[in-house]
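Worked example (supplementary).
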Amino acid sequence: MMSDVTIIDYGMGNLFSVKRAFEHCGASTAVTDAADGIRTARRLLLPGVGAFGDCMDNLRRRRLIDPIRDAVAAGTPLLGICVGMQVLFEEGDEFGLHEGIGLFRGRVTRIPGGGGRKVPHVGWAALVPARPWTQTAFEAVQEPAGAYFSHSYAAQPADSDDELSHVDYQGVRICAAVRRGGITACQFHPERSGATGLQVLAGFLRTSVALES
Amino acid sequence: MRNVRVIARLDIKGANLIKGINLEGLRVVGDPREFAERYYREGADELLYVDAVASLYGRNSLIDLVRATADKLFVPLTVGGGIRSVDDVTALLRAGADKVAVNTAAVKNPALISEIARRFGRQCMVLYIEAKASGSGRWEAYTDGGREHSGLDAVEWGIRGAELGAGEILLTSVDREGTGKGFDIELGRAVAGAVDIPVILSGGAGSAGDIVQAVDAGAADAVAVARVLHYGQASLQSIRALLSGAGYYARPI
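After joint prediction of all chains, the assembly is encoded as:
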């Protein structure tokens, strides 16, 4: 039987937590590192930790970028988390300029430090809606909601309509989540954000049902 | 708004949650699974497990506990105690940990810090410093559960660890640990002021007020608390309310 969510394993990060969190939401999961697994998935999850360039190199080496683009173009819902969100943008400037997958317009840049603002940004922050969350994965998120972040770089969406939510990090506005069509992406870790995060994952499962039929 | 994390620290020996004073005289408190679940429900921002005897016997008995925790508790989980190699880290992450706290092995082989950071990302590599006062305004880093001298100055070691790739520092005052006399504010300020990565101050909390003090005066980005929670001297709810009243972000539960 086909799994509800297919997690893309490209050697970048811890797949266990997000797998467990989806299973907690009642979804069956599979892990794939192959183009076929991606092209036939019902829903895709792109995790990611570490550097933008390393993530892109690993995706490229495993020839997974085109399968991801193809799947999204065919309507497969995709959720990106942390650096798995960042690589969906056009480019990132972590340790040199790197081309991203480019499903969202915009770039990924370093969070400005200084003045007591430490980088990496680690901890919980209040999710501020950038537009209504109805009919998105965030629909069932109860406000006020906090989510757990752990990152040094953040996306700057060029199309403000893509932004679902942002947070304030000591005076710097950070993009927390974006959505475009069937693609949703979170800078924070829904699998590590308690009840709020589980609401987002359940929301992704629910709102992407319509796209299947 | 500044966010401050309140991390529930559970020191583990075998199957038990234990607590000592100055990392010694360990007493059994109860079943770590029950305590962890309660702290998760009550809104702990993160959980921290420290295997209290792993470094002494060269083993790590936490895997089963980590797996059981990660199965149903969805906040970040850091595991420390007896981590010696990239293979140890791999095993803990596979079991469901998000970060590792490394002390003794990092002192013996600082390159391990860079290796873990490169392999799993900086956010995964927490440098664990057990510090004891060694004179006015100076602290020495200890290893093996606060028992062995390293000869390293705690502040300089923190700076070096950050340069080598540590994403956070877990800073325990061995002098204050388990005493309930309040955090070592000077220690917190010295290390947090010297590095640009987050510092988790640990050791000595006796009340919710001590935690606000650690953040206000001690410049801590997060606190790890054990005794004060285990023995019900302060609840996570009261700590969050006090932090929120002092102008810090505390997540809604």
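Two points are worth noting when inspecting this output. Chain B has eleven helices and twelve strands. Chain B touches chain A at residues 1-5, 40, 43, 45, 70-72, 74-76, 93-96, 98, 120-124, 167-168, 196-198, 221-222, 249, 251-253 (CB under 8 Å).
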